[in-house]
Design goal:
The protein has 262 residues and is α/β, with parallel strands linked by helices. It has a single domain, classed as Alpha-Beta Barrel (TIM Barrel), CATH 3.20.20. The chain has helices at residues 18-31, 49-58, 84-89, 100-104, 110-122, 135-139, 143-154, 184-202, 204-209, 220-227, 244-261; strands at residues 7-11, 39-43, 64-67, 94-97, 126-131, 166-170, 211-214, 234-237. An eight-stranded parallel beta sheet has the order 7-6-5-4-3-2-1-8. Helix 1 (18-31) packs parallel to helix 11, helix 5 (110-122) crosses helix 7 (143-154) and helix 10 runs parallel beside helix 11. It is globular and about 45 Å long. It starts with 6 loop residues before the first strand and ends with a helix.
Length: 262
């Protein structure tokens, strides 16, 4: 089996202030000081990118700095948007694209998400592409149809060699912030289907190397069971990432799962 280093991202969404962002960053850095075997990313709100970057640099941390979104155009009259060049200037290394809240709250379409993915990867950054079904789609048995459509459109015109910098986050919309969570078996089935579809697009070798993380009410109490699944390579964490202790525990669970697979 291909060894994939798990990746755990802390998506703070529209939370924290300057003081909380500083305290939270320091807590995560200190808590993961001697933890190997997991790649960790923090996604603070835009105003705190430079603050978090400074803390990570000052402490010599390998934790990556991520941005929650980006606009695909390089510059221009796009009031309120943030370009990829601006994010790079702030030290951002990885960008979220297609998060369910961007899709279902702010109305972003698959084609627009594709433009973002292409722009992020073309700029040499890493990308986390989020896909997942709503509760109605799941109850109708359409979860595979939905994720396949989202992947096919989002990955259009993306060369296979760019996938080395792409992580896919499967986030069932019905489990985000609701306290509900897919069972380990359900999550594994969805991740396996996603990997098989990536294989259909790019071939089995590339698909075997692509990391697929789970997002959806992932907490310290269920992290180990989810990370033990063959096709789950870490997590994209929302609410639990606002507690340094909880987030560190989840990251350590991912590292332990990687050791167990060796």
């Amino acid at each position: 089996m291909t060894q994939r280093k798990p990746i755990v991202g802390g998506n703070w969404k529209m939370n924290t202030n300057r003081g909380v962002a500083s305290e939270l960053s320091r807590g995560v850095v200190d808590g993961l000081l001697h933890t190997d075997g997991v790649e960790t990313v923090l996604f603070p709100p835009f105003p705190y990118l430079l603050l978090v970057r400074s803390i990570l640099r000052d402490r010599g941390s390998s934790i990556k700095l991520g941005a929650q979104d980006a606009y695909p155009q390089p510059d221009g009259a796009f009031t309120g948007e943030v370009s990829i060049a601006m994010l790079k200037d702030c030290g951002v290394q990885i960008v979220l694209c297609g998060h369910s809240e961007r899709r279902h709250v702010l109305g972003e379409k698959d084609e627009f998400i594709n433009a973002k993915v292409r722009a992020v990867l073309e700029a040499g950054l890493e990308c986390i592409l989020c896909v997942g079904e709503t509760l109605d789609e799941r109850l109708a048995g359409h979860q595979d149809i939905v994720t396949t459509r989202q992947l096919k459109t989002a990955l259009a015109e993306i060369p296979g060699d760019w996938l080395a910098r792409l992580t896919i986050a499967y986030e069932p919309v019905w489990a985000i912030g609701t306290g509900k969570v897919a069972t380990p078996d359900d999550a594994q089935a969805a991740h396996k289907q996603i990997r098989e579809f990536v294989g259909h697009l790019y071939g089995g070798e590339i698909a075997s190397r692509v990391r697929i993380q789970y997002g959806g009410s992932l907490k310290p109490g269920n992290a180990a069971d989810l990370f033990a699944q063959d096709d789950i390579d870490g997590g994209l964490i929302g609410g639990a990432s606002l507690s340094a202790g909880d987030f560190v525990t989840i990251c350590k669970a991912a590292a332990a799962s990687a050791r167990a697979r060796r």
